[in-house]
C-alpha cells in the first residue's frame, strides 16, 4: 500500500528524529515529496509511506500520539454526469463496480465504491471524468 500524507510539526518536534523512526519501528518506507522545515520554527512535510495497511495505520497512530498533525492527501473523481449519454463504455474498466448500468440501461455512479484509479477518464468517449489535483483531506 502507498499513502500520501501532509505532516505538520511544531518547533519542538522539528528537532526530533520522528520520521526516521517510522522505518525502524513499523517497517515503512518513507519518500519525502516536499519539505518546508527549519530549526526554530514549525514545519510541514508531504510524504509517501509504503508498507502494509496495518503498519501504515500504526505509523499514523504513532505520529499523532507524539503530536504531529497528520492529514491524508486525497484525489477525487470529478464527473460531468449531466452530459452522460449512457453508452456504458466506462463500466468495462471500473473493477470496483462504482460505475454500472441499471435495469433501464442508465449509468449509475456509486461514489462510495470509487478508488480514484482514473481508468474511466480514458474510457469515456466524451471525456466526462477528471481526476482532481491532490489535496489534504
Ligand atoms: S476512477 Fe476508477 S474506480 Fe472510480 S469510477 Fe473511475 S474506473 Fe471506477
Ligand atoms: S463512458 Fe461516458 S458517456 Fe458513456 S456511460 Fe460512461 S460516463 Fe456516460
**Strand residue content:** 25-35%
Radius of gyration, Cα only, in angstroms? 20 Å
Average pLDDT, rounded to a whole number, is: 92
Helicity, as a percent range: 10-25%
Distance between the termini: 18 Å
* The CATH H-level homologous superfamily of the largest domain: ACT domain
Uncertain parts: none
Number of domains: 2
Written as H for each helix and E for each strand, in order along the chain, the element string is EHHEEHEEEEHEE
CATH class of the largest domain: Alpha Beta
Q: DSSP helix count?
A: 4
Which structural class matches the secondary elements? alpha+beta
Principal-axes shape call: elongated
- Quaternary structure state of the chains depicted: single chain
